[in-house]
Design goal:
Blueprint lengths: L8 E4 L8 E7 L3 H6 L2 E3 L13 E8 L9 E11 L10 E7 L2 H13 L3 E2 L4 H8 L5 H11 L4 H11 L2 H22 L1
Parallel strand pairs: 1-7
Antiparallel strand pairs: 1-2, 2-6, 3-4, 4-5, 5-6
Helix pairs in contact: 3-4, 4-5
Length: 187
C-alpha cells in the first residue's frame, strides 16, 4: 500500500452492482475542498459551512464539462461531511450517498479524481484509520474479518474484535505478565 497519507483519496464504499443507494467516500486534508467543486447544496449553503455528521440534499455537478455547454448534472445525492478527527479515518471525510447504479458511481468517482483526489487502494481507508490512531492493529484486521464473515459465529467474533475486546484481553495479559516479572525480579 505504500501511498502517502497526504493525498486525498476516494473510492466506492458499497459493493459493485445495482442498488438503490451507492456510497462514495472521499478522505484527506482536501476532501471538503475537492467535494465543494462538485457539490451544490439544495439549501444554497457552501459545503465548507455545514455541520459535521449531518446529511444534506445536493446536486452533484461536473464543472469540468465546459466543452459540453457548462456543468453537467451527475446525480442528485445526500452528502455528509465528517470533520477530523471524528471520522473513520481520523481525517476530513465527505461521503456521497448517490443512486446505486455502477455508472453513476463511476462517473462521480472519475469527477472526484479529475478534481484532485486519487483512487484509494484496497484497504487504504482502514490503513489510515490505523495510522491515525483511530483503531489498533487487531481492530484493523477485524474489519476484513467482518467484511468476509460467512457465519454468525464469525460475524460475532469479528464484531467483538472490532470493539476492542481482543486488544483489551492482550493488554490485560501483558499487565499481568509485567506484574509477575516485577515480583520475580524483586525476589
Amino acid at each position: 500500500m505504500g501511498a502517502p497519507t497526504a493525498d486525498t483519496i476516494c473510492a466506492i464504499a458499497t459493493p459493485v452492482g445495482e442498488g438503490g443507494i451507492g456510497i462514495l467516500r472521499l478522505s484527506g486534508e482536501k476532501a471538503v475542498e475537492i467535494a465543494s467543486r462538485l457539490v451544490r447544496l439544495r439549501s444554497g449553503r457552501s459545503l465548507g459551512s455545514v455541520r459535521s455528521h449531518h446529511l444534506y440534499h445536493a446536486d452533484i455537478l461536473d464543472g469540468g464539462a465546459a466543452d459540453r455547454g457548462g456543468p453537467q448534472a451527475l446525480d442528485e445525492s445526500l452528502v455528509v461531511v465528517m470533520r477530523a478527527p471524528r471520522s473513520y479515518t481520523g481525517e476530513d471525510v465527505v461521503e456521497f450517498h448517490c443512486h446505486g447504479g455502477p455508472l453513476v458511481l463511476q462517473t462521480v468517482g472519475e469527477a472526484l479524481v479529475r478534481n484532485g483526489a486519487r483512487t484509494a487502494e484496497p484497504g487504504e481507508f482502514t490503513k489510515r484509520a490505523f495510522l491515525n490512531g483511530r483503531i489498533d492493529l487487531t481492530q484493523a484486521e477485524a474489519v476484513a474479518d467482518l467484511i468476509h464473515s460467512r457465519t454468525e459465529l464469525a460475524l460475532n467474533a469479528a464484531n467483538e474484535q472490532l470493539a476492542g475486546k481482543l486488544s483489551q484481553r492482550i493488554n490485560q495479559l501483558r499487565d499481568d505478565m509485567m506484574n509477575i516479572l516485577a515480583h520475580v525480579e524483586a525476589h
